[in-house]
């Protein structure tokens, strides 16, 4: 049975306008702590102390574990992403914020995340761009147009990796689509 190791445990905190969000570290071999958050944050592998004292995951892990996309209207945003990508969401209220969690599967490739509404979450086209895997770009862009999304970057071949495009979601965020050849 897994346990939270007092020596390794600690508080991972983000300061966001005075709101401290605590995250527990899961020690490998122990019970899932934090349930969905442990799954979403990829906390199924042991955390390893880096020389600087910072915690990191094993070198074989992808470094991005979780992404939060800010929204103004959670119902409108979930309807948009459901229609665009065929996703289903799990609604939660976490640390006082309304969230719609993207699907997550332990051991699956890539990161997961959530659509989040709250005072510190401001949708924007500037900043980080989240890439969503799709089977094909063209039908996804057609659905985006039908949903009223602006196409910010038309489909472009990126060599053997496939194709990318960028759209503005229902909330004003710039998101990208990536599909294999």
Task: Describe, in plain words, how this protein is organized in 3D.
By secondary structure, this protein is an alpha+beta fold. The chain contains 3 helices and 12 strands; from the N terminus they run ββαβββαββββαβββ. It has helices spanning 36-40, 74-85, 137-146; strands at 15-16, 19-20, 48-49, 55-56, 66-70, 90-94, 97-101, 112-117, 130-133, 150-157, 163-168, 174-179. The protein has a 4-stranded mixed β-sheet, covered by helices on one side. The protein has a 4-stranded mixed β-sheet with strand order 9-12-11-10, covered by helices on one side. A two-stranded antiparallel ribbon has the order 1-2. The relative contact order is 0.15. The model is unreliable at 1-49 (pLDDT under 50).
Note the topology.
Blueprint: E1 15-16, E2 19-20, H1 36-40, E3 48-49, E4 55-56, E5 66-70, H2 74-85, E6 90-94, E7 97-101, E8 112-117, E9 130-133, H3 137-146, E10 150-157, E11 163-168, E12 174-179
Parallel strand pairs: 5-8, 9-12
Antiparallel strand pairs: 1-2, 3-4, 6-7, 7-8, 10-11, 11-12
Number of strands: 12
Question: What distance separates the N and C termini?
Answer: 44 Å
Main sheet properties: 4 strands, mixed
Give the CA-based shape.
globular
Mean pLDDT: 77
**Which regions are unreliable across 5 or more consecutive residues at pLDDT < 50?**
1-49
Q: Structural class, from helix and strand content?
A: alpha+beta
The helical percent reads 10-25%
Give the oligomer, counting copies of the same chain as homo and different chains as hetero: single chain
In N-to-C order, the SSE pattern is EEHEEEHEEEEHEEE
Describe the strand arrangement of the main beta sheet, using strand numbers: 5-8-7-6
Q: What portion of the residues fall into strands of 2 or more residues?
A: 25-35%
Please count the helical segments. 3
Rg (C-alpha, Å): 18 Å
């Amino acid at each position: 049975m897994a346990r939270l190791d007092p020596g390794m445990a600690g508080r991972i905190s983000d300061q966001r306008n005075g709101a401290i969000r605590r995250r527990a570290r899961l020690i490998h071999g122990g019970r899932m702590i934090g349930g969905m958050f442990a799954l979403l944050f990829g906390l199924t592998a042991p955390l390893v102390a880096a020389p600087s004292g910072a915690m990191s995951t094993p070198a074989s892990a992808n470094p991005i574990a979780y992404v939060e996309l800010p929204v103004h209207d959670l119902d409108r945003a979930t309807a948009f992403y459901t229609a665009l990508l065929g996703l289903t969401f799990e609604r939660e209220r976490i640390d006082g914020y309304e969230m719609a969690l993207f699907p997550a599967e332990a051991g699956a490739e890539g990161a997961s995340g959530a659509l989040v509404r709250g005072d510190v979450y401001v949708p924007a086209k500037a900043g980080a761009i989240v890439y969503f895997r799709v089977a094909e770009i063209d039908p996804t862009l057609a659905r985006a147009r039908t949903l009223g999304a602006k196409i910010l970057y038309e489909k472009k071949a990126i060599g053997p990796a496939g194709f990318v495009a960028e759209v503005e979601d229902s909330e004003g965020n710039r998101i990208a689509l990536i599909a294999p050849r």
